[in-house]
Amino acid sequence: MSMKHLSKGSRMPSPNRGKLRLFTNKFCPYSQRVHLVLDAKKLQYDVVYVNLSNKPDWLYSISPLGKIPALELENGDVLYESLIIADYLDEKYHQHPLHPKDPLRKAKDKILIEQFSKVVNTMYKILLTSSRNNDENRDIIMEGLETFEKELAHRQGPFFGGAVPGMLDYMIWPWCERADLLKLFGNQFALNKDKYKRLVEWKGRMHEDAAVRKTLIDTESHIKFIQSHRAGIPEYDLISG
Amino acid sequence: MSMKHLSKGSRMPSPNRGKLRLFTNKFCPYSQRVHLVLDAKKLQYDVVYVNLSNKPDWLYSISPLGKIPALELENGDVLYESLIIADYLDEKYHQHPLHPKDPLRKAKDKILIEQFSKVVNTMYKILLTSSRNNDENRDIIMEGLETFEKELAHRQGPFFGGAVPGMLDYMIWPWCERADLLKLFGNQFALNKDKYKRLVEWKGRMHEDAAVRKTLIDTESHIKFIQSHRAGIPEYDLISG
Predict the structure, then answer these.
(1) Which label site among A1, A114, A122, A192 has the fewest CB atoms less than 10 Å from its CB?
(2) Mean pLDDT (whole number) for B138-166
(3) Which of A241, A225, A49, A223 is nearest to A233 (CA)?
(4) Distance (Å) from the C-alpha of residue B107 to the closest C-alpha of chain A?
């Protein structure tokens, strides 16, 4: 199993029929969501790392739009869209359930995940494109973080999901892992320890979670990656393992 | 219960605690999705029609972003986002289940609903904004319709959900109800009877469904509404009942 990201001209690795296989990228936060669910449930799966700036032709035979994450199932069927894959895994594999059992609590968590997508889109603009860190972007991120800070205060904790991380924790985690990067790109506000006390504590606890640790990338490597991405030559292979 | 759309300056109708209440608009396809689920499950609910071009102030106390559909639950909690509400209702009320029980079939249907959002966005551009019915828009809609035509061929039918309409049928229906409008705004391609034989037949069967009939609006009224919307004074009250 290659630990390097495969590019155009590569051969698609042969599947291990009967085993899940995730088409992914080490720096893709949407893919990381699916890793977190698979790892929280301690499922066995193969990975195929894909170079997103020079996609292999065979990717389109797996995922019609060339999108990752794409999860190949035991029978050869393929699912895509991170949230749809996450829900599928939670419904299919009952160990370590991630969504609340109560339909109302589940729906409310899904609304929060949906709301978080505004933060996601804004972070993407600030970190990876030339969009300036203007007041509007700043407001969107601060409003988003405040919603989640308040939410943690209302809940029993220590995680959004309760005693252990649940679906909401894992679905927002990839961008929270990258929150410190905002400081380095001109933001003073991101995860301020006084303003977002509960979120900062939550982040510390998430860092110790076994599933989170499996895909955790240190801030220094995130910075290097973002710099390479901004320079137009994303170094997907800059971390080993 | 007012059958007219309420505007700024109106008083919010008092809730019937213990009964579902849907904040909706007769011409909003996203709201229609929630009506279809409620009606398919034969749930009792009150409705509050909202004027989207002159929203009542009290709407923001119900739905923080002023978005509809918003479903007020028996306990006063409020859910929004049409797909999240639809999933909630299907999980909470087991009569007439709409999603497939099998997690894989359910995930595949959710991917199709997600794909359909491209058709939705393009129809919106063509019908309600000044966006021209150009080749790109045309291709997006034709590709979308072809995906669904093929999908119907692969399935047992007569509906996407099987013997009766399921979640996928209802979630795409509001835009299919409006498909004929594309012809009137310059498109010759929409739901061509030879090219999309199965979809056209499916549409005929959907027209007979009891839940669909409850919110069905005739094409003439849809045209009048679109003309009023394009003129800048949307006539939400142009149909009675």
Answers:
(1) A1
(2) 91
(3) A225
(4) 6
